[in-house]
Amino acid sequence: MTDQTQTSQKQQTRQPWRWPQPLAGKNSRIWYGGDYNPEQWPREVWQEDVRLMKQAGVNIVSLAIFSWSRLEPAEGQWDFSLFDEVIDLLGSNGIAVDLATATASPPMWLAKAHPEILPIDEDGRTFWPGARQNWRPTSPVYRRYALEMCRHLAEHYKDNPYVVAWHLGNEYGCHNLYDYSDDANAAFQKWCEERYGTIDAVNKAWGTDFWSQRMTSFDQILVPRHVNGFPNPGKLLDFKRFSSDALLDFCKAERDAIEAVTPDKPCTTNFMVSGAIATGIDYDRWGADMDFVSNDHYFTPGDDHLSELAFSASLMDGIARNKPWLLMEHSTSAVNWRPVNYRQEPGAMLRDSLAHLAFGADGILYFQWRQSQAGAEKFHSAMVPHAGADSQIFRDVCDQGRVLSDLTDAGVLGSRVESSKVAILFDNESGWALQHPTVPTQKLAQFTEPFSWWKAMADLGITADVVPVDGKWQDRGVVVVPNVYLMDEGLADRLRDFAREGGTVIVTYMSGIADRSDRIWLGGYPGALRDLTGVRVEEFSPMGDDFPGVPDHLDLDNGATAHDFADVVTDTADDARVVSRYTADKASGMDGVPAIVLHPYGKGRSLYVGCRLGDTDIAGSLKPLLGDLGLAGLVRSTPQILRVVRVSPDGTKFVFLFNRTREAVSARVEGEVLVASQADAGTAAAAQVAGEPETTEGTIFPAGLIVSRVDD
Ligand code: GLA
Ligand code: GLA
User: Is the pTM here over 0.85, yes or no?
Assistant: First the structure.
């Protein structure tokens, strides 16, 4: 692998973790609240807001996220009066403020005076003002105005006792992730120069001898604007990295401007970590630059709702490196931005919040406090709906405030998510590379395979952790490497070391195929992991149904069926054991080809799964192998229940049980029941075994949950 030396961009020092502190004279509590937009309402409503917030147990709000046009109504004219009054009203009523830098949406006057701040799409079209985030992160002009805003806010509020955190921007890149302007072009050239040093290194990384794309100087580099064919994959991948970095650079400039004035208040920004929504931001990299990390998560309608939430929240815990994080936004019911905006079913609101809490969120906030009367989000649910306080949603909001308060009293703060013996690796960059239009099939969305493994583990009763590929997974027993397509020597070495020391590495198709520049490892797939997996693949066999007679599935001799993708495994190592093969007609060339291969490696082993099986057939295929893989002790008999545990330093456990199904399920509840929602916590089991925690037999209904405490 020596000629594919990688440029490492992951070596970062992490900011020390810092958390928003409670208001003077108060103790730390689970934060509870939402986005608050008082500028949309007359003063009388503010009074009612604060009264209702207190009734609901709200103790924090995010303020001024989209308030630039109020704070600086004309260039250089600063007006903090509205926010002074609101912050004072909130704070004197015990409600803390997460204050935004207000830079997410520039005012109309700025775009008019400086149209050169507006982002440009790949076809050269301008994103005009009229929505939000109509700015380029690489614009020196926009940066000047935005940092001026940060400095004024910081100076004005530096001694304000009610401002406990800074909210940098808002969902960076939600609407301005890719910008193809001249500013972006100049910044991309500089980024490439810093990353590669010489233009020849860029040529090599991008394989520019292909289609005569060789360059002789950095100023020949172009952002990937509209082309008449397939764009260079290496360049496209680097442009995605650059776009994430350009926004991070802007975000850090805001952070630095704020920190220079108010070093005592921690900074965060709200991520959009959601398995189901592909993101162009490398959040694991961003996490290192925040004092604490925050997330916005919106539910996936339908059967995958809880699983997708758990997958995303677990990934957040991995990005947070197991430190507390904040759920900055989720919804009490429907959103406004899907084609069909489904409402939440009864119980789902509390269930979702407590699922985020179970996975490490020490604060639960919503978008937004009061549902807007006008504007593009007027049909988005809120804590106070259009119907007003006399509504089921607001009653549920109040109930939730009580539940969070009870959990604080029960000691949940300070406990951290207990790590699972099974880690599923997640790699954003592999997802970016596999989005290219010229890969073997367009069915390789990065989320699909890792999510199938998460659900398969859950079906076996195992709550796996989702861990960023550069995160902490070396202390686990089993590591799943699902579609980690890009792999440098460093990662391949870490996986080998892990197996050598006794770990189990489960590798799927489309892992370890290319290096970090998207240059293929030669000699047979998976080039980076051939020795570890003991397999060699000469060709891929994607499947579909777009032509009559094409292969659309493959049967395995263990009863499973593969769809979408299979490897043509041609060789297996002498010491490998083929666990399952395909059974197909002879003409297909796939009959008898190895599908699942177990390979001893050092004190450990690997399992290669060379096709897409989906969650049910992954779980079925793993069942006879649990002993071989070191999973046997982890399987639970009630996979209908998602079990997540938070542990305190003193050994106290908080056990969260969620119903994953649409049927009532019976549950063995350990210790003292703290919360039972859509559930019957039951009565004490007949005989308590000495030395074991007391248990009860409960029932959890759909969308229900039980939280209990087990004292050490
Ligand atoms: C995002 C934004 C919010 C709001 C919500 C609506 O999370 O940060 O301002 O637009 O979406 O779901
Ligand atoms: C055409 C072109 C070749 C190559 C092939 C790929 O035939 O002439 O350069 O791109 O398509 O199928």
Answer: yes
